[in-house]
Every structure is written in C-alpha cells, then in structure tokens.
Amino acid sequence: MSTEPLFDTLTVIGPGLIGASVLHSARRTGTLARRLIAVDINPAFRERVEQLGIADEVTADARDAASRSDCVMLSVPVGAIGPVAAEILPVMKPGAILTDTGSTKVSVIDAVTPALRPDISFIPAHPMAGTEYSGPDAGFATLFENRWSLLTPLPGTPETDIGKIISLWERCGARTRLMTPQHHDKVCAIVSHLPHLLAFTICGTADDLADETRSEVLDFAASGFRDFTRIAASDPTMWRDIFLSNREAVLEMLARFMEDAQAMARAIRWSDSDYIVNRIERSRAIRRSLIENRQV
Ligand code: NAP
User: Fold this and answer.
1) By alpha-carbon position, which residue is closest to atom 1 of ligand 1?
2) Average pLDDT, whole number, for the chain?
3) For the CA of 103, the nearest atom of ligand 1
4) Are 265 and 126 spatial neighbours (Cβ–Cβ below 8 Å)?
5) Could you tell me which residues are beta bridge partners of residue 74?
6) From ligand 1's centre to the CA of 18, what distance in Å?
7) Angle between helices 43-52 and 17-29 (to 10 degrees)
8) Contact between residue 81 and residue 112 where contact means Cβ atoms under 8 Å apart
9) pLDDT for the residue numbered 1
10) pLDDT digits 0-9 by tens, 109-130
11) Pick the CATH number of 183-292 from 1.10.468.10, 3.40.50.920, 2.60.40.10, 1.10.3660.10
12) Positions in the chain whose pLDDT score sits under 50
C-alpha cells in the first residue's frame, strides 16, 4: 500500500463518533491527508476535537474549510447531509471529491444531487461500524478495522476518484464493496435498521409496564434484554433521520419480520417443536458465519 497521502487537505464535517474515528485513523496512519480540518457547529465539540489533537485546524466555517480542501467528508446526521452539501458545494475546488458516511443512501443522494456540480465527484459511502455512543469522545482509531464500508457511486463518476475513496477506507482498516444505493438501503434495513427498531420497541414496552414490573425488569435484566438496551442507547436524532429517510425499506422489512414473528407465535401456540428448533438453529448458523467472517 502506498504511503503517499491520498489528499492534500481532508475536511471532516461533523467529527462525532464516525468523523472523529476517521480523523483518529488519519492521524494514526498519516496517509489519508497532509492536512486535516474538522468542522462542527457545536462549540463544545470543537473544543474537544482541539484537545484530542486529531485535526490540524478546527473551525465552525464549513464553506471556508471546504473551499480549501480536495476531499470533504460529511459525517453529520442523515437529515443534515443535503443542507450542508448545498452550503459548501458552490465554493468547493474544481476536481475535489465530496463524500459522506450517512447510514442511508437513496435519500442522501436525492438530497445532495440538486446542488451537485459536474466538476465535483460525489461518492456516497457508509462505514458499517459503530457503537451506541456519539460525539468526538466516542471516536477511536480502530473502529473500522475489518468492518465493511459500502460505496454507492453515481453512474459516470471517474474511476480514479472512486479508487481514492476506496483507498481512504482501506487505509482506515475497512474492507470495501460497491453496490447500488437501492440495494444498500434494503440490506441495511435488515442488518441495522430493523434491529434498532426492535430494540427501541422492546425497551419502550418494558418502560410502559406497570411500575412494579418495570423495576423488576431493571433488577433482573438478563443478557437478552441487556443486549437490546445497548442498541437502544443510540442517538435519537441519528435514528429518527435513518427511519424517516429509509422509510420504504424499513417498513418492508418490518412487515416481513411481523409475518415471521406471527409464524413463531403460531408454532409456540401449537407446540410445533420442529419449527421452533429449526428457526433457532438457522439463527445460530448466522452467528457462526459472523464469527468466521470476523464481524463480531
Ligand atoms: P454523532 O456522533 O452525533 O456526530 C455527528 C456530528 O455532526 C456531531 O458533532 C454534530 O454536532 C455534528 N453536526 C450536526 N449537524 C451539523 C451541521 N449542520 N454542521 C456541522 N456539524 C454538524 O454521529 P455519528 O454517529 O458519528 O454519525 C454521523 C453520520 O454517520 C450519520 O449520518 C450516521 O447516520 C452515520 N453513521 C453512523 C454510525 C453509528 O453507528 N453511529 C455508523 C455508520 C454511519 P451536534 O451534536 O451538536 O448536532
């Protein structure tokens, strides 16, 4: 792998969990860019990024930073990607690359496209890595190691520019795959968005229970419920944006899930042991494959 920096100046707008992790990786490898700029609207976060020392410059001025960068990464909540792109695209350098880390892709592309310029490559990406924490302190350099980063480039994007964003993620330790934005959103609805929806719902149900039962839920939470609470601790703004921007795929997967849950309920009601065991065995096989794929 070349050690020559990919970019002269890389700006990360929104140095939260994902953006700060990219900056940590960039600092660690030293091969993403010669100069790193972090942009955040939150003064407390700017101060933390300065203290962490993961950027050469920290500013609130996205337009000024973008005008001096050859790559700009938008790592803000999905609903903010379109407005921030519209703000910076008019001042970006000709030939520069715009990329993002948003968890949904069709709506992000729809939101960015109206402001796109022919001399800027927009290369949407989604690193499939994360924790339930947010903000700059949540970031760390190894977050992307052995994780996937999914790229959904637009037709006609120069191969060399796509290659640079592939290299960026590989230098952060990730594996990359290209796919259409529609396929991305469907896959993520089942592997990420539906599990979060279930976790938020289960925790909500537990919270709705009568006082006495609720306190016992907290006292005796065994690992099953506890694992759901970890997922359910995720950032509300981020997840609101994800559900609303991937509405159709999420609802389609939820409908499939509810059919399957009904089938399981039926099997339990009628003591259909074979069905129950078969479902659990298939689930265990998925878990084994994840371990073999180094995804846990
Ligand atoms: P995060 O920790 O909340 O960081 C987002 C940062 O963007 C915060 O510092 C936020 O500041 C800032 N911000 C919000 N609006 C802004 C604006 N208009 N201009 C500049 N900064 C702005 O979120 P994250 O978890 O890193 O997620 C970032 C993106 O990556 C999202 O699109 C998300 O869908 C995607 N993603 C997340 C995960 C995950 O597991 N968390 C995984 C893969 C991809 P304030 O808090 O003050 O608003």
Assistant:
1) 16
2) 95
3) 34
4) no
5) 13, 100
6) 7
7) 20
8) yes
9) 65
10) 999 999 999 999 999 999 999 9
11) 1.10.3660.10
12) none
Where does the chain have alpha helices with state H? Answer: 17-29, 43-52, 62-67, 78-88, 106-112, 159-171, 181-188, 194-208, 211-220, 223-232, 236-245, 247-269, 273-292
CB-CB neighbours of 35 under 10 Å:
16
Report CA(146)–ligand 1 centroid distance (Å). 22
Q: Note the pLDDT of residue 59.
A: 98
Closest ligand 1 atom, residue 131 Cα? 40
Backbone phi and psi for residue 76, each to the nearest 5 degrees, phi listed first: -95, 170
Q: What kind of fold does domain 7-179 have according to CATH?
A: Rossmann fold (3.40.50)
User: Is the CB of 16 within 6 Å of ligand 1?
Assistant: yes
Strand partners, 167: none
Q: For Cα atoms 179, 114, 74, give the angle at the middle one, nearest 5 degrees.
A: 60
For the chain, the domains span 7-179, 183-292
Residues 6+ apart with CB under 8 A from 89: 98, 112, 115, 116, 117, 120
pLDDT of residue 21: 98
Ligand 1, atom nearest to 18 Cα: 26
